[in-house]
Amino acid sequence: MENIALIESFSEFKDEKSIDRVTLMAILEEVFRSALKRKFGSDDNFDIIINPDKGDLEIWRNRIVVENGAVEDDNEEISLEEAQKIEPDFEVGEEVSEEVKLIDLGRRSILALRQNLISKIHEHDNTNIFKHYKELEGELYSAEVHHVRHNAVILLDDNGNELVLPKSEQIRSDFFRKGESVRGIIKNVELRGNKPSIILSRTAPEFLVKLFEQEIPEVFDGLITIERVARIPGEKAKIAVDSYDDRIDPVGACVGMKGSRIHGIVRELGNENIDVVNYTKIDEQFIKRALSPAKVVSLKIHEAVGDEKPRVDVFLKPEEVSKAIGKGGVNIRLASQLTGYEIDVQREGVEDDVELTEFSDEIEEWVINEFKNIGLDTARSVLDLDLAELVKRTDLEEETIREVQRILKEEFES
Predict the structure, then answer these.
(1) How far apart are CA 211 and CA 270, in angstroms?
(2) Residues 136-203, CATH architecture
(3) Given strand 273-278, what is the order of strands in its sheet?
(4) CATH number of the domain at 2-131, out of 1.10.1610.10, 1.10.1660.10, 3.40.630.30, 3.30.1480.10?
(5) Does the pLDDT at position 1 exceed 60?
(6) pLDDT confidence of 38, banded at 50, 70, 90?
(7) pLDDT, tens digit, for every residue of 353-368?
(8) 76 with 45: CB under 8 angstroms?
(9) In this predicted structure, what is the pLDDT of residue 123?
(10) 3 in helix, strand or coil?
(11) 3-class DSSP state for residue 237?
(12) What share of the chain is helix, strand, coil (3-state, %, to 5)?
């Protein structure tokens, strides 16, 4: 009776965790064999018969009959005298099967048995969750905000599984409320201990790709392909698209009439400004398109040296330079990411210019790097922008910028 009652309590897990019958039987047998091994030293000579649907459990120990006084292993052998108490006809060399009651294992072993079963079922459940979400890495996914922390948002999906959206994977303008539905891509799934860790991302370039696939039918159908993506999440992105069908304008199809198709994607990304450009394998043409809205006069590509990125000198009219660089150097950074080239902006028709690095004796290196970070590599490029614009785009103090411009002016005046 105690066997049946225990198995009935174990079978509750089957309903709670939706474990199939075969798996539950395998876990139950593993748990019982572990308990028998602890109790008797070995489980090799035990037969375990389990029917979790009916709540049936039988454990039988098989031992060989030996001469009286010749028992060396009382787990695997039984004396003739003890065997004949079970059945008078037993003889030496025959096998005796006896049923083992759970109560014989002891109360402490039974409690350990139940705890071990819970642990095994949770481990099985976590492994299945890990495998399921591992296959979804890189896919678009939605979940509901369960808890907002200072460094992460905890989400629950429709299956009640937990996903984490770290602060580093959130768009700067993101703001979440409990119960709100959030979209992102499953960036990474790994097992930490026995528990799966599922990381959602809204900043990965792949998120933008998946949104295009969902919102633009031609992208979903494969008529338009996304060749390259560069993003500064929540601020600006550039995406290069192509089509093998000459009848399709890939840029027009992605943007839609008056931006109707891309509007939903922009809104999802916190009003991230998205430039869609036509992809081409011709580097010169692609670099020009990537620097849009600036109009490039000409360019000169330099071969890569060692592991460095290949470099290109881009020549523009002075009034186009600020467009190419963009606010805070965003446009030129994205163009560089998209094309794979280090882009140096040159002013067309300006011959007497000097690289900023030539002033390293008078201007500190970190100050020069501040200008270079926003695409200003030469003296003329710094002097062409007014003080207010430079203060806004860099992290430099007004006094520092004034001093730099004074040094640069003196160079040209001399």
Answers:
(1) 13
(2) Beta Barrel (2.40)
(3) 224-232, 236-243, 273-278
(4) 3.30.1480.10
(5) no
(6) confident
(7) 788 888 888 899 999 9
(8) yes
(9) 73
(10) helix
(11) strand
(12) 45, 25, 30
Average pLDDT of the segment spanning 92-106: 81
Residues 6+ apart with CB under 8 A from 269: 171, 202, 208, 211, 233, 234, 237
Tell me yes or no: is domain 204-279 CATH 3.50.50.60.
no
Q: Tell me the two tokens of residue 398.
A: 């007004």
- The overall average pLDDT reported for the chain is 86
Average pLDDT over residues 108-117: 70
What is the rounded CA–CA span in Å between residue 385 and residue 207?
Answer: 36
Residue 243 corresponds to which amino acid?
A: S
Q: Which residue has the higher pLDDT, 23 or 253?
A: 253
Look at the block and give the residue holding tokens 């695409």: 375
| Dihedral, 323, 329, 331, 335 alpha carbons, nearest 10 | 120
Distance of alpha carbon 397 from alpha carbon 125, whole angstroms: 57
- Domains of the chain, residue spans: 2-131, 136-203, 204-279
